[in-house]
């Protein structure tokens, strides 16, 4: 964290846990829990982009949803501007929502098909601000221009637009209340590659313009490399590695990060590295493995890894903080 | 879908490509109409329903005689040029009575479906949206209602409230509640998980806003289909109750009551019971055809 320390922390997540109960039996007792997010801590600094990467089911989206209180986290703290969002009542939370917005993955499912684009964007202002009606429409048009769409589009319906255009509408909605933090939940994953690049560049432009902070959730390492300042890697509900983008991509320390990064296709033959192929499947988050959660698939796991759970520690002279007992030896 | 596909390609060069302006509501209604008209069965159903409604609205102008006008010398006449459907045991013109009867039957049908839909939709929305304990309680109540055979439940309600057409509407309305509640609950549960509901939740919208502005408008199709099909059942049940003497009281020209009157002369003057029976059968079939057609037309999977 060489450069980040100068910045103010905007969002501080501490020991966040999100368990989903599994009901069973005749009396629908809680028989077990899906431990979607299990003791996750990280900080997002003002103006930066922190990416969360990991394979499906690792809890990256749930982390985002818990911060937004779309789920009810089991325990932990989510401090935004030093206020713990999880302590707030529904009404107090509404005030905070003005500053935290979200862009969703599927541009075809994230817009109500029965509302005009203008209504969709306006509704955000209607709920969260006391802007008068006439001003709202002006603002809608201004926002549409900001995201590279024509102001006349305000009167049209979502089904008339393409995926990329719809995602721009989603971005305009997220921007409507002048938020500080935007959670991008797989925001470009559903788009064509060429449209992806356009939308990513738009996100970057808007970040510069409004000093936005992004929590960028993605499984696409190419996209993450393009947009992030820092990267956090998750595996089975836990953070395995976090650090500056450069350090994560060039000097990954955790065996899982290494395996993940080796999956990026490298067009340059001479630069091609050995592909690390993991064996087996991700274990179930209902009964996660004891000790280090990655030990069942880790090529370097020892008996010690099965018994003890590693904490996340700074390793080496880079910014990486790693949850692995052997990080130093392996690097 | 094809529109979206072609737009994707255009977007790559120009994100400002202006698609042709279309109002989705108008377009939807138009395509729905086209589908209903091209489907022969629903077209027939729709036309018959329309004829009944016209007859009900313009009854005083269409009906050749007073539906209550007693003319004893001409009693139990078979169909003639003067009385197209004959006369009943008091000499009243059956055609006129059937035309006026459509007012009663359609009113009972529509009002009871509205009662059923109102409470059913409310319960279904609450149950589907809040889930958990609320859902369990509401659905168990609905199960109890469903456990009764429809006509028996209606009979029980009528015997508690007294035989009257208003009470028939209430009774038939109550026994329509479970079907609406179940359909709305299912649709709500599916829709609750869609991303745009999450998006609006992330804006801190109230439950009221989410339910009425974002969920309800998007689950109208199954409600409309169910409402149409339910009209047939409601009319049939109401006629059944009147037949049993639990609904409309004489001399009102209710089809079920007329059928009951004609029972006595089934051998000597079969037309007295036949025509009201046909009137009931035809409208029930027509609503069913229309409902099935609507279901097919509104089903997104049936799109070509």
UniProtKB/TrEMBL annotation, chain A:
Concerning SMART domains, the annotation shows: AAA
Task: Output the Pfam families linked to this UniProt entry.
Answer: ABC_tran (PF00005), oligo_HPY (PF08352)
Q: Its Gene Ontology biological processes? A: peptide transport; transmembrane transport
Top-level taxon in the UniProt lineage: Bacteria
| MF term (GO), any | ATP hydrolysis activity
Please list the residue ranges annotated as the ABC transporter domain: 11-261
Keywords tagged on the record: ATP-binding, Nucleotide-binding, Transport
Q: Which family does it belong to?
A: Belongs to the ABC transporter superfamily.
Q: Which PANTHER family match?
A: D,D-DIPEPTIDE TRANSPORT ATP-BINDING PROTEIN DDPF-RELATED, TRANSPORT ATP-BINDING PROTEIN
Could you tell me what this protein is called? Dipeptide ABC transporter ATP-binding protein
Q: Which organism is it from?
A: Salinibacillus xinjiangensis
């Amino acid at each position: 964290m060489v450069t980040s320390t100068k910045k103010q922390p905007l969002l501080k997540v501490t020991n966040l846990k999100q368990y989903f109960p599994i009901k069973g039996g005749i009396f629908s007792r809680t028989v077990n829990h899906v431990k979607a997010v299990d003791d996750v801590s990280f900080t997002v600094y003002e103006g930066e982009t922190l990416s969360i990467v990991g394979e499906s089911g690792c809890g990256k989206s749930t982390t985002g949803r818990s911060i937004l209180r779309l789920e009810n986290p089991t325990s932990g703290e989510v401090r935004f501007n030093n206020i713990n969002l999880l302590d707030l009542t529904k009404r107090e939370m509404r005030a905070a929502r003005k500053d935290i917005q979200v862009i969703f993955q599927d541009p075809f499912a994230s817009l109500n098909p029965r509302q005009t684009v203008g209504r969709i964007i306006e509704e955000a202002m209607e709920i969260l601000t006391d802007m008068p009606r006439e001003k709202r429409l002006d603002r809608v048009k201004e926002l549409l221009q900001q995201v590279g769409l024509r102001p006349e589009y305000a009167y049209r319906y979502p089904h008339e637009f393409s995926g990329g255009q719809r995602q721009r509408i989603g971005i305009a909605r997220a921007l409507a209340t002048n938020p500080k933090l935007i959670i991008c939940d797989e925001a470009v994953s559903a788009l064509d590659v060429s449209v992806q690049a356009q939308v990513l560049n738009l996100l970057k432009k808007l970040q510069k313009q409004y000093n936005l902070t992004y929590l960028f959730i993605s499984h696409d390492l190419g996209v993450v490399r393009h947009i992030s300042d820092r990267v956090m890697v998750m595996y089975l509900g836990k953070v395995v590695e976090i650090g500056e983008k450069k350090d994560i991509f060039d000097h990954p320390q955790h065996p899982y990060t290494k395996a993940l990064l080796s999956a990026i296709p490298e067009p340059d033959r001479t630069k091609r590295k050995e592909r690390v192929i993991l064996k087996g499947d991700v274990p179930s988050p209902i009964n996660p493995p004891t000790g280090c959660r990655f030990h069942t698939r880790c090529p370097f796991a020892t008996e010690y890894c099965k018994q003890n759970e590693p904490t996340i520690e700074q390793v080496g002279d880079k910014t990486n903080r790693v949850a692995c007992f052997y990080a130093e030896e392996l690097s | 879908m094809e529109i979206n596909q072609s737009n994707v390609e255009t977007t790559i060069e120009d994100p400002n490509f202006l698609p042709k302006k279309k109002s989705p509501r108008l377009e939807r209604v138009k395509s729905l109409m086209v589908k209903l008209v091209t489907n022969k069965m629903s077209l027939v159903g729709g036309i018959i329903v329309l004829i009944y409604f016209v007859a009900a609205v313009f009854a005083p102008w269409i009906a050749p005689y007073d539906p209550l006008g007693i003319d004893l010398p001409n009693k139990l006449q078979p169909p003639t040029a003067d009385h197209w459907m004959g006369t009943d045991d008091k000499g009243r013109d059956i055609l006129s009575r059937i035309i006026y009867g459509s007012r009663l039957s359609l009113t009972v049908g529509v009002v009871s479906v509205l009662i059923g839909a109102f409470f059913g939709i409310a319960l279904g929305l609450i149950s589907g949206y809040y889930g958990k304990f609320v859902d369990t309680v509401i659905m168990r109540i609905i199960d109890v209602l469903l456990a009764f055979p429809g006509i028996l439940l209606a009979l029980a309600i009528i015997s508690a409230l007294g035989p009257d057409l208003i009470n028939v509407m209430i009774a038939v309305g109550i026994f329509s509640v479970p079907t609406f509640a179940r359909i709305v609950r299912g649709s709500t549960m599916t829709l609750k998980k869609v991303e745009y509901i999450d998006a609006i939740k992330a804006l801190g919208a109230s439950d009221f806003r989410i339910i009425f502005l974002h969920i309800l408008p998007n689950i109208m199709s199954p409600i409309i289909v169910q409402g149409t099909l339910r009209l047939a059942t409601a009319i049939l049940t109401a006629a059944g109750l009147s037949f049993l003497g639990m609904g409309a009281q004489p001399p009102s020209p209710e089809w079920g009551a007329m059928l009951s009157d004609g029972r006595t002369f089934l051998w000597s003057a079969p037309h007295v019971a036949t025509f009201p029976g046909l009137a009931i059968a035809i409208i029930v079939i027509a609503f069913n055809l229309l409902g099935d057609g609507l279901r097919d037309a509104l089903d997104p999977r049936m799109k070509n």
